[in-house]
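Fold this sequence, please.
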Amino acid sequence: MKIDTPRGEARVEISRPAGTPASLLVLGHGAGGDVQAADLQAVRAAALAANVTVALVTQPYRVAGRKAPAPAGHLDEAWLAVLAALDEGDLPVVTGGRSSGARVACRTAKAVGAAGVVALAFPSHPPGKPEKSREDELVTGCPTLVVNGDRDPFGVPGKRRGVDLVVLSGEGHDLRKDATAVGSAVLVWLRRHGWAM
């Protein structure tokens, strides 16, 4: 499905479970990647099998064929428009994504009324620049899950109140060495909050 946003056309792939859905999980991609990333697909599969409707969102700059990401404000604007256009009834909405998509979900969680946030490969800082922390974005005002690899050059967030942190051994920023473990970690967290069966 295509959704018009102030920043161009976004694409949304919605997968619905066979049973009655417990929640809607909306996930965005990383800066130079797409929704076919191994970790996003693993989370989609795990959530779908646990009665969660999953929407994978491709930002307008990627739909237009550009690799370089749009500025943060443009990404947030497009994300807000997509969330406003999604209508899956009264389901709790959990937002998230990987890397840049995780940052977008964190920054906009309050504005979209997210019940929770799933942040995969959250980029704590630019590689080699730990002094340029982005961890304040993890203050979302709702339960937040971070799944990072211990070998991520973008860093691993520190412990923070309201944030559940899962660090996977041997994983880098792409979280594709054992994507099933990523899906499992997200599913455990969704179930703990009553957002999955």
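The chain has five helices and eight strands. The mean pLDDT is 97.
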